Amino acid sequence: xxxxxxxxxxxxxxxxxxxxxxxxxxxxxxxxxxxxxxxxxxxxxxxxxxxxxxxxxxxxxxxxxxxxxxxxxxxxxxxxxxxxxx
Length: 86
Prior knowledge:
Structural class: alpha+beta
Pfam family, one: Fer4_10
Number of domains: 1
Number of helices: 2
Radius of gyration: 17 Å
CATH class: Alpha Beta
Shape: elongated
Organism: Desulfofervidus auxilii
CATH topology: Alpha-Beta Plaits
InterPro entries: 4Fe4S_Fe-S-bd, 4Fe4S_Fe_S_CS, PSI_iron-sulfur_center
Protein name: (Fe-S)-binding protein
Keywords: 4Fe-4S, Iron, Iron-sulfur, Metal-binding
């Protein structure tokens, strides 16, 4: 006899992108791959003197969590967090 268990899928309501400024070298590869154009260069420099990337979280539609920016970053300076309602 096979037993089945009911599972409930929890889908994130939104995603949040965090740029690790101490790692970012401002190469802008992430800007070029973001399908929602949520990343932009800033005028703020990190401790190494690089102009870091900023995430525009106020844009309508927001991050869809595709991970393209995370995958393309050579410095591993991007984190994507799911925001789940409990």
